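Colleagues,

For the teaching module next term, I've prepared a clean inverse folding example: a structure given as tokens, and then the sequence designed for it. I'd like students to try predicting residues themselves before seeing the answer, so please don't circulate the second half yet.
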């Protein structure tokens, strides 16, 4: 009964993913979005999206649209998709709250020049001290009315000068910060845009965010955020800071290791289910330490107490393995849709495409392999006659065996020219004369490649007429 009442009184979980539109959605951002999504769905809560575009110097045109499309491709659809909060549309709101803090004495107007601040910072660094604002304007009592529209200014928060600030992180536990080492953070910049710290707090409050799940790099900013919540008199959310994603050598993840945009993974032939499975295991593990997981299974098992503190290793071999497993599990229709995104809709309209997808499912690591893997079905590549010889066999033996195969299959009706029928006809010959000596030249004659599906699979797809044509091409080479 107590647990029932506790669940009724508990505030519904609301989380958000708040990317900055400075380029593509990369794997680290996708992991943050996914962990928020998993936490919300596991707890029956809401997953919201917010665009934090207040850093105008780093803003990249079109990146908002690409971020939204990347999330949609992964299937991470926010509940507020029709009304996404965009910070650049809320400048007056942030300004109002910043001025409110100044009026309360929790923030102040600073008119120090950039040159003066840069000189101070340089001197402090030379002296081996952390660069911090010297506090020239902290007690000056400059009023907004004195500077608004007249001179350049910023608004800074008044951080406590002493004491400990405690962050009870849901992943890292209790973390202590020395208030005296934290700078008077700029809240409102001279261009009228808020800094991340001010806008972040206001937006989270107005969106009703209950849990802030974000990257480890934001942990040092959390004391400032806690103080801001206190200054406004608002209830703060719970914080959880995710571990870094590291390269295999435990260095910072870079593009050469896999820190690339989500859409690039799509174009390389990765399935969204495989990407989610992979990033879901970057710092989190289910109870039974399984690796192949569906989205439904991850939602069911996800909890923050199973997220590790240490960095998570990005292993592209594991990603490729997971992708191959998800390709095997996918239906031909599902794979056809994904292949169309890579190679175009005209390509997947080809007559043999369904059979080729079914045949290739077990062998593909990435969907981008499909075209090259199966090009020989449409155009027999040029090959040297030496390829038709099995190991230490001879040209003469390959010629003789291919002639015998041709004799046996020539009598098969077109309607019966199927894998099962062909195996029954050819395999006794292969067992009699040596499987390698018979099947190897047959497979090469059909594909022109030293690596391809088995000859009976290929004949089934090519049909009788094209199979005989290709065997005759090989016989001419051998003669």
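(Answer key — instructors only)
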């Amino acid at each position: 009964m107590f647990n029932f009442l506790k669940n009724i009184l508990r505030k519904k979980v609301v989380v958000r993913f708040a990317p900055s539109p400075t380029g593509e959605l990369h794997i680290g951002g996708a992991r943050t979005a996914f962990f928020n999504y998993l936490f919300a769905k596991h707890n029956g809560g809401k997953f919201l999206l917010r665009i934090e575009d207040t850093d105008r110097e780093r803003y990249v045109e079109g990146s908002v649209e690409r971020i939204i499309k990347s999330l949609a491709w992964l299937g991470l659809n926010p509940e507020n998709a029709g009304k996404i909060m965009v910070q650049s549309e809320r400048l007056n709101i942030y300004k109002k709250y910043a001025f409110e803090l100044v009026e309360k004495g929790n923030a102040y107007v600073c008119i120090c020049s950039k040159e003066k601040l840069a000189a101070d910072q340089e001197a402090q660094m030379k002296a081996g001290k952390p660069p911090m604002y010297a506090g020239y304007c902290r007690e000056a009592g400059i009023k907004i009315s004195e500077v608004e529209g007249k001179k350049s200014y910023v608004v800074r928060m008044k951080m406590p000068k002493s004491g400990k600030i405690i962050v009870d992180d849901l992943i890292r536990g209790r973390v202590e910060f020395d208030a005296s080492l934290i700078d008077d953070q700029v809240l409102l910049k001279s261009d009228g845009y808020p800094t991340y710290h001010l806008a972040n707090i206001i937006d989270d409050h107005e969106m009703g965010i209950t849990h802030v799940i974000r990257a480890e790099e934001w942990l040092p900013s959390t004391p400032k955020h806690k103080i801001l919540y206190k200054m406004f008199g608002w209830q703060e959310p719970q914080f959880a800071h995710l571990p870094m994603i590291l390269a295999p050598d435990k260095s910072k993840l870079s593009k050469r290791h896999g820190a690339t945009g989500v859409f690039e993974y799509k174009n390389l032939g990765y399935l969204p289910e495989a990407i989610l499975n992979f990033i879901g295991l970057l710092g989190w593990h289910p109870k039974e330490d399984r690796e192949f997981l569906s989205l439904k299974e991850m939602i069911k098992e996800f909890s923050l107490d199973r997220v590790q503190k240490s960095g998570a290793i990005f292993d592209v071999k594991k990603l490729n393995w997971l992708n191959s497993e998800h390709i095997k599990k996918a239906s031909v229709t599902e794979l056809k849709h994904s292949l169309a995104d890579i190679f175009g809709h005209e390509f997947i309209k080809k007559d043999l495409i369904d059979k080729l997808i079914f045949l290739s499912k077990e062998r593909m690591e990435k969907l981008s392999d499909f075209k090259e893997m199966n090009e020989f079905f449409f155009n027999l590549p040029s090959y040297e006659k030496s390829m038709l010889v099995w190991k230490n066999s001879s040209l003469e033996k390959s010629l003789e065996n291919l002639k015998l195969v041709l004799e046996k299959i020539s009598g098969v009706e077109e309607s019966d020219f199927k894998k099962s029928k062909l195996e029954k006809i050819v395999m006794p010959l292969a067992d009699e004369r040596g499987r390698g000596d018979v099947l190897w030249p047959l497979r090469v004659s059909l594909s022109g490649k030293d690596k391809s599906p088995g000859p009976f699979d290929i004949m089934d797809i090519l049909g009788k007429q094209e199979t005989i044509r290709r065997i005759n091409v090989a016989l001419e080479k051998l003669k």
